[in-house]
From TrEMBL:
Species of origin: Didymosphaeria variabile
Superkingdom per UniProt: Eukaryota
Name used for this protein in its record: MYND-type domain-containing protein
SUPFAM superfamilies recorded: HIT/MYND zinc finger-like
UniProt KW keywords: Metal-binding, Zinc, Zinc-finger
Xref: Pfam families: zf-MYND (PF01753)
PROSITE patterns (UniProt xref): ZF_MYND_1, ZF_MYND_2
Domain MYND-type: from-to ranges: 219-261
GO MF annotation list: zinc ion binding
Amino acid sequence: MGAWGHDLFQSDHDLDMVSEMTHDAGLYKLEEEAIAKAKAAGESDAEKQIYYNLYGPSHPDVVRHHLDSGVLVDLIEKKKAKMLAPPNRLDFLRDPCYEYVLLGACAMGLGCTLPSDYLNMLKKVYTEGGLMSGALMQMRKALFGPDGFTNGVPYDFESKDLIETANSMHDEDRQPGASGFVSLNVIGPGGFFNTGMGDSSTSTIIKELRAQHAKPDACGGCGVKAQQSGAALLQCAKCKNRRYCSSTCQKKHWKVHKRVCDPTLY
Ligand SMILES: [Zn+2]
Ligand SMILES: [Zn+2]
């Protein structure tokens, strides 16, 4: 597992994840069909000209159109369900929150139309999946500006690829390896040696979102399903996503809940 920088799309970890999501989105199948069609039309080097991917495809407009036809919304729902499901002991290898955020970065890069509840959720959780330092700053800028992502317009994260990174290094920074190749390995996201910045398994925000998701009809403070009087639970007036049996429980729980209630609060 290698990485050549701390930005988005600068590690095998990210590119492997992108590749799997590309498969999930049905893009490799679409690519196969497009190549077959081009070859039938006499384009012998179609394989070199046509590559569909969630990041850096040959035909971004084709990929965007495919995603905007409902594929992206399905994919978001799947990744969200995984992120809000009870934690899995293998999450450290493939953090579900990281994946959820990386999908967003891909969709923004392509200029897809992102549902507003997805954008709101990204604002709440982009810090919680273990993104590298540069990637965090890139996501913050895309989501909160200035000059951030405009829905439906391709957004440039300005991540350098491996070759650009190598070319931009000063000669004295290059460390020729035994093979003669320039070593660009930096510690990447995910796995045993991740950034040390935490991941969704230790996140209060993800924990609260999971609790909210698992028991939407229980008091966020004490877990009961009705007020003492038997009346229905009260609702958080701001987000309407959390219920409480009393103002005491709501006040007690606010310290946690405020972190997911409204992304503009922090
Ligand atoms: Zn309560
Ligand atoms: Zn709320």
